[in-house]
Amino acid sequence: MKGLKYIMIDKGLIKGRLLLIDDYITQLESLSQMPISEFLSDRRNAAAAESFLRRSLEAIFDIGRHILAKTGGINMATEYKAIARGLGERNVVSKDLSQKLIQMAGYRNRMVHMYHIIAEDELYNIITEDLNDIREFVVSIKKYLTTF
Question: What is the pTM of this model?
Answer without folding.
Answer: 0.89
